[in-house]
Amino acid sequence: MNAHDLKVPAGTAVAAPLPDILPDVPPRRGVFGFLRRYPTIAIGGFLLFAMVFVAVFAPLLFTVDPTSISTRTRTREPSSLYWFGTDMLGRDIYSRVLYGARVSLIVGFSVAILASVAGLIIGLVSGFIRAADSVIMRVMDGIMSIPSILLAIALMALTRGSVGNVILAITIAEIPRVARLVRGVVLSLREQPYVDAAVAAGTRTPMIIVKHILPNTLAPLIVQATYICASAMITEAILSFIGAGTPPIIPSWGNIMAEGRALWQVKFYIVLFPAIFLSITVLAVNLLGDGLRDALDPRMAKEV
Questions:
Q1: What are the helix and strand counts (H, E) for the chain?
Q2: Which domain holds residue 42?
Q3: Which of 5, 77, 249, 269 is deepest in the core (most CB within 10 A)?
Q4: Is the pTM of this model over 0.90?
Q5: Looking at the domain assignment, is residue 27 inside a domain?
């Protein structure tokens, strides 16, 4: 008997028939859904995590002491004992590259954090307090008129070579870019109706900045911080390459490449391996920054 042949008494409520096609399943939410929506964040985050893992566990991963000098093992080819070969002083390049990751990541992360914090404070003050804007921005324009690498070289020439001085020199060169970015965001936010309403209600300026201005500057600031991190690692490598960065006793990708440039044509691996690690790390940070830009921009982000 067919269901349509059944007689239904009058006045009995009949349920609506089920649709033939089920509605679309909403997209996956959570961390995995977010990473599927933004694959550049997944790829960049994975590569960066791998480099951080290498840097943290370098003492467990290296095969030979990176500072050990041996004239009997000079310029050895890559082998099962010396995976990346040895340099002109017989030092193991593989171990030195692992420890060099520590210097580059420490410099990159430190400069990104310090420059972001200092630039955020300067940008907030300059963008919201009109009386201070002109003076602060002229100082920032003066610093930005000097190429960052030249400014870093000049600052390093006044101090002795160390990781701390490298971080300080690069941070000073990067602060104006963050300050101008934050200032531009604040200038557009302070004209919004909710800010005018807060001012009319008698809210104090520091409270307006903290409650209404600061939260809206964090998204572009985070994206800018990733680019500063990548730029800082390249600048540190350049400074070390020309002898104005970390001292040779501290392994860094820049001074490893500098020590191998004289033998580049015959022992190219001395320069090749640290260059590959530097390129992968910078690529990872840039991919992460591009993904965060797409995810945090309300005009480009879609529901995950």
A1: 12, 0
A2: 36-61+91-296
A3: 269
A4: no
A5: no
